[in-house]
């Protein structure tokens, strides 16, 4: 049985998004950012965790800034306004529960 290969999407300037794996209960997604690229402020009903695989990011969660480096992680509760700015090109590995059907 072969696993699905998901296409790369470009949700914002300087940002690439690729679903790595999913089930109805959980989704794992890679976000690759160029320096200076931003993930616009938004909210969604999914619980999200983000892990910095490489690079440096400034996350905004519910109006509070958090500077994250490789190996750092952050949980974003359901409905909380959040976004990020890439300070040094890198990659985030995000998990969403339940799955983000809008990414498929």
Automatic annotation (TrEMBL):
Keywords: Dioxygenase, Oxidoreductase. GO terms for molecular function: dioxygenase activity. The lineage of its organism: Bacteria, Pseudomonadati, Pseudomonadota, Alphaproteobacteria, Rhodobacterales. Residues 31-88 form the Cupin type-2 domain. It comes from Paracoccus lutimaris. The keyword Disulfide bond does not apply. CDD domains: cupin_KdgF. InterPro entries: Bacilysin_H2HPP_isomerase (IPR052535), Cupin_2 (IPR013096), KdgF (IPR025499), RmlC-like_jellyroll (IPR014710), RmlC_Cupin_sf (IPR011051). The keyword Oxidoreductase applies. This is Quercetin dioxygenase-like cupin family protein.
